[in-house]
Every structure is written in C-alpha cells, then in structure tokens.
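The record is kept unedited without comment:

——
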Amino acid sequence: MAPVMVLWLALCLTGTWAVEKSNFKTCDQSAFCKRQRALIPGESPYRALLETMELTNTRLTLQLINDKNKVRLLLELYRLQGNMTRVKINELKPLKPRFEVPDVLVKEPTTEPMSLLSQDENGVVLSLGVESQRVILSARPFRLDIMEGREVLMSLNSRGLLAFEHLRIRKDTQADPEAEKKDEAEPADQAETAKEDGKDEEGMWEETFKTFVDSKPNGPTAISLDFSLPGVEHVYGIPEHADTARLKTTENGDPYRLHNMDVYKYELYSPMALYGSVPLIVAHNTERTTGIFWLNAAETWVDISSNTAGKTVFGKMLDYVQGSNEKPQTDVRWISESGIIDAFILLGPTPKDLFAQYASLTGTQSFPPIFSLGYHQCRWNYNDQEDVQAVDAGFDQHDIPYDYIWLDIEHTDGKRYFSWDPHKFSSPKEMLQGLKDKKRKLVAIVDPHVKIESSFKLHDEIQSRDLYVKNKDGGNYEGWCWPGSTGYPDFANPEMRELWAQMFAYDKYEGSMDNLHIWNDMNEPSVFNGPEITMIKDAKHGEWEHRDVHNLYGFYVQMATAEGLIQRSGGVERPFVLARSFFAGSQRYGAVWTGDNIAEWEHLKISLPMCLSLSLTGIAFCGSDVGGFFNAPGTELLVRWYQAGSFMPFFRSHAHMDTPRREPWLHGLDNTNLIRDIVRQRYTFLPFWYQQFYHSHKTGEPIMRMLWLHYPKETATFAIDDEFLIGKDLLVHPVTEEGVTSVTAYLPGKDEVWYDIHTFKKHNGGQNLYIPVTISSIPVFQRGGSIIPKKLRVRRSSTCMEHDPYTLYVALGNQNTAEGEIYIDDGYTFNYEKKEFIHRKISMANNIISSINLAHDAHFTTQSWIERVVIIGATKPSKVTLKAAGGQESKLDFEFDASVSLLTIRKPGVNAGEDWTITLK
C-alpha cells in the first residue's frame, strides 16, 4: 500500500490529530487567487463598446474591451421573471468553448421585457419594469448599477475588479494548428483580440503544490467580478464553512474558499473550504433582502470587505453624533479558476421573495419520506448481522423509537460497494426483513469510488464502457481510497449516471430490499493520495478538465443515487439519500450533514450556524453527527447534543470506529431516561416536521431559520445564530456550553408572545429572557398565534404511528387568535403529486376553532382523528361543543389549569380530514 495511504489511514484510525492545514492551499498558494487578489481596485481596464449594443425584448448584448490587451468580451444582460437579473460575461471569440455549468438550473429561466430609457456616449439606462427599477450601464470604465428610485441596490465592477483571463496559446510551445487556421481565416479579428498580455507569471501554465504538479494546457482562465451592496452590513451564505452564520470580512486574511474537499477534523471559525459549496450570498438590512448566485463549479474564493468592519459600537455612535453621512456598504468579490461569469442578482425584496427566486433557479428541497425525519442510529461500523439485531432489540428493550440503523463501509465485501461481507452479513435480506417486520429501515453506504479489480463486475462494466474519469494523458485516472487502488466514475457523464442508477435495481444490488436506503460519503471526491485529498485538476471528464466541474462531482453522485432508488420502485417511492458533498441544487436529491465533526462543545455550537447557512442557500435537510464523529463525548455533552439534534431537520447519531460504543442506553440509567425523553419528543413533533418539509418543498423556504427571516426589521436578530426558528412557530435555543445553569434567549417580536412548550409560561417578545436550565431542559417556545399538530402516542417507529390520532396545541396570540395547518399523505410515495393528500387550515378566532379544507381538488382518506385540543393562554369556558361534518352537535369534556391558563379539550373524535368546529362558551 502506498505510503500516503498508510499515513492517511493512520491519521484516521488514531483519532488524535487535528486538521493538518498545510495539506490545504491558502490563497497565496493558489496561483489564480494570488494573481487576482493582487489587482488594484479602481484601475479597471474594461470599457463598454456602446456601438456594439443590441437590445431585443428580453436581452441586451454588447462587447467589453480590455484596453490593455485588446481582448473583447461579450456581455449579456437579462431581466428574469420574479425580480431577478442575470449577467453573463464570456470571451467574444474564445480559442475553444469555455465551461458553462449544466444541470444545476431546473430550467432555462423565463425572461421578461426590458426597455431602453436613455442613451448617450457615457452609457445607457434600461428599465427593469418593477417599481421604478432600472439598470445604469456606464461605459468607461464598465460598470453596472441596479437602482430603485434614487437608491442603488447593487453595483457591479464599481471597484474595477472585473478580470477575465482569456484563452491563449503558450508562447514557448508550437502554436495550435487549429488556432493557426483561425488566424488565417480571421486576421482582422485576431489582430484586435489576440494582443498578448505581458510576461507569463508563475503558476499560469503549471502549478506545483507539495509534490503534486497541476498542468494547465489551457493556461490561465480565471475570472473575477466585484459586487457592492450599499446600506448592507450583514451577509450570509456560501456554505460550507465551520463559521458563524454572518460572514466576516476577509481583508486581513484568506477569502472564503469554495472547493469541495475531505477535511479531516476541520478547524472552526475558519474560511477554509469543507465538503460542499453553494455559491450564493444573501444580504439583508432592515429595508431589503437580496442575493448573488454565482453559477460556477470551479474552485472559487470569495472576498468580503465592509466600510464598517472593525468599528466599535462607540465608533458608530460617534459617527452618528458627529453627523457622519457614511453609508454602510459591503463589497463581495468572486474569484473562480475557470468557466465564465454567470451571475444571478436576486432582488427580493423580502426574505420570502428571495427564497422563491432562488428556488425558481435551482429547485426546492426534495420532499422526503416521513420516516427519514425520525431518529437514525449509526456508527462506523456495526459489526455484523447479529450486532444489528442486538442494537435493534436494544431500542425496543429501552422503549426508544428509531427509524433507521446504518451500515458504514465495513459491511461490504472488501470495500466493493453494492455488496455484502459474506461472513458478517451473509443473509442481508433476512436482516432487512427483520427490520421491515418492525416497520424500520436500514441505510447502507455506497461511495463513488470503485475498487480496481478485474473480477469486480461494477469495475468491469465501467471500464468496458470507458466511463472512468481520465488522467491528462487519456488513461483511466486512479487514486487511493478505502478499497486501495481506486477508479473514479465520471459522474459528469449522463451515461455513467444512468449506469450507476441501474445498479440499485433489486436484481443487481443483491440482498437489497425496499427498506434499504443509501448514504453517499467521500463524494468530494476524496482521493487519499491526491492534492488536498481530492482529484488532480488536470484529470478529464470528456472534453472538460476536472478543474471546471470539481464542485459538481458530489452533486452528480447524489443525483444518480436518488434516481436509482426512484427507478427501482418503478417511480413510485420517494428516495432517502444522504450525501457529504454538495453544490447548488443538491437540495433536489436528499439530505446533507456537516461532516466529520469532533466530540467537543465548540463543534456542537458550530453545528447551528453551519446548518443555518445551508438552510439559507436552499439545502433544508441538514444535521450534524450527534455526539461528534471523532472522540468520545462526556455524558453532559452527549445529552445536550441529542437535545440540539432533535430539533434539527436531520437527526442522526454517528461515531468513529475507534470510539466507545454509544447507543443511547450505555451511559447510565439517568442519561438513558434523558435521551429516551428527547427522542420520544422528536416523534411527537413528526406531523409538524413533515408539514414544514412539505411547505419547503413547495416554496423553497427553509425549515431551520435565522430569526431575522420573520423579523426582518429587528436588528437584534441579524447576527443571532445560537438559536433558531423551525418554520415560523417554534423557537429553539439549545444549550451548547458545559456546566451552565442558565441561558439567555432572545424572543423576537415586540408585539408577539411566546410560550414555553414545557411549562406553558407566557413571555413577551422583543426581550432577552433569562432561563434557568437543568440537564433535562432545552428552551423551546411556541409562538402565540400558532397551532401545532402533534402525535403523543409514540411507538417504535414513525410508520407505526401512521394512523394514530392528533393533538392540536393552540397557542393564543395577543388577539386570542391562532392559525396552523395539518398536512397528511401516505408518507412515502409520489402520489401527493397526483393530489392524493389532505391539507387543512386550523384556526381559532372568537372562541371558535375550525378545520377547513385548503385543497379542494385533492383527495385522500386517513384513519387518524383529533384526540384532544390543548389551548395555551386560555380562559375557562362554561361549555365546549363540537359540530362535526354531518352537522350534529355534541358536548365535549374539558379540563382547565388556571395556574398556567391551559385548557385541554378531550376526545373530539372527529376525523383529521373532515370539516369541524369547536365552540367555547
């Protein structure tokens, strides 16, 4: 085995080292980043050639020229439906095509008319047709300003940092014959566009990092553009980084990096790249929410600067007293190694509008089967079938529900994916059937690297169809990963994705059943002996280099896997696929998690902003490894992590193979009881979680939300990332510090009231609330004015609870009103797309609670009924009556607890899918 492989495995298996930062590049070690960052603001060489402008109903084009090298670019400007603007910049006549990202946009965006308002020798003004919105295009130097009335919403190239490294022929090599032919055919064009830049800089045609040499046959191809956001101090997004949700300025350090990599024991509060990349920045102030979506899949660095960065509160107050008229501004600069500039400007103006805009481009969160929202039990690795059966029985013995047990790489036959170890897992169908009998599921890992072995059918199939990624010389690219010598399927090729999807068919994935779901790990891709633990950039995917498509690799793996699970069911069942690496649009295919974290309090704390950042950028189905993947958590940390994890969209416990076993009952009776209560509480909220996922799937709105999304003018919420909302109705403040006996939570909304879900105590919004805590408590509040459906009969799995009754928790607002919803379907098929569901509005006003149908064209029946209604903040009625769908009236029993103003109405007994009213007199 290669020495690099041995060293890497040693690091993983000892579990004692932290991230080795020297294995990963800084901006100074990335030639294109260093080159672009050296550009001086305010010295843009680009001007717009207004005489080349062409304006159709929906598209403006004109040429830009670099006055230093005379290379021309083509600018395309589009107004898009939904208050968006698209800006594309490419070479006017490149030597060969430049890569443009496919498959991420769900469709070609719908354009809307633009009109010319004015034009002179300095520029043009275009109307965007929305509330006096317009674009001002300045010619010298080139600049775009998007305005609304007299307010500048966003400026492009205002700092003059547009850069576009054109394709060229290397001076010290023989000219490309095809280029020579082009020279002969178009001498006039070449004279104007091929005046070369000055001296070649280091790293333009070849770059070395450690012992790895990256050849660059196309030479320098980097692109860059700056965006200015007047009036903005808070920007978010561009996951994945182990950092605060609010992005920091990068002027005194490295930019944020987007380059999907397998980072062992990642460092916290760092701009280092991690497993996934979503090139979307969200900006917010009290007046507007906007976004920039940079559609580029190459290695990308994002610089952020601010004119208010570093100012103390006193400094800002002094500005105010002295009458400073300096307007806050944040500047964002994108630098990518290759491709073209393809930027979408999302103009909001509300957070809800922005999420709808981004969803119209990249899609919404896939609607998962309801059982994937339950609890997942995982470790690397459960030893054998008997171990799986014993763990499964342990959950029953200790009365703890769960839905999935997981198997890591050791379940396979010699790291050959789509296989089972013949000794440890000799009867996988028997194991799966045993779980199915209890209405439980199993997840098996299927990584996107293939053992190179002539007797391995998958390898033989990929090789015979020539579907592996190639090295620069045309041979199959080989690296080291878990199987040893490994091939990497070219998932950028649709034929490879189709082959991969077919592998999940029951007759090909022997031993699999319909209750087997899939986990794609290592899909950055991870290459143990590659530069930065990933694939060399000059590897080839057809005509494209890996540098062009790198951040798409994991996206394509999850896409192919999800399609495979759908195909195996004949298109009937919704898949569940977890992936570590992701890109914009990955939300359409499943869930992600925050990777290989550590059993430390700071890693618990950082999991909140990491998932909030993902949620802001479309990926709603997110969680972290409960307890920490590396090392062994103390019991207090483990309990606190279960508490936090139970209120995150994806709820899984996971651990490294060298950590002590940590099934929920292995930490003493008291802690077993605490964890049992936490997990059971998660199951009571499943109807609410499922409803949130349905809403997210339909609208693109996140599930786990920063507070400012619903309180956009409340500046106190803008930087809060240690608490969050689920939907708009639950506020959660996990305890993330050791040994504390109290926390302070901010309750937003000066006109709101919030109720502690455990004590039902009422609190006013717009305040910091001091909350005493014990090891058994996690502060959670229900918003006054909301109604949340729950199921209180917790069983061994979510499927066992399918027909159980509902309890409605009605939290009255200041006007003694409340609203909520119930959504019901079969929980796992695509039949909801055929209108087979129940969607009802539950409301209370004027002492009447009613259920009305929100989907009159839908049809579905349920056995579930309304078991009780709990009204929080109520007054005692003298009588409670029910009027059911048939018109009959009946008197209902109730109890009233005056100490907490809690009214419990018992056994209305009405079907959850029917009309009914309850009247309080």
Summary: The radius of gyration is 29 Å. The CA atoms of residues 164 and 223 lie 5 Å apart. The first strand starts at residue 46 and ends at 55.
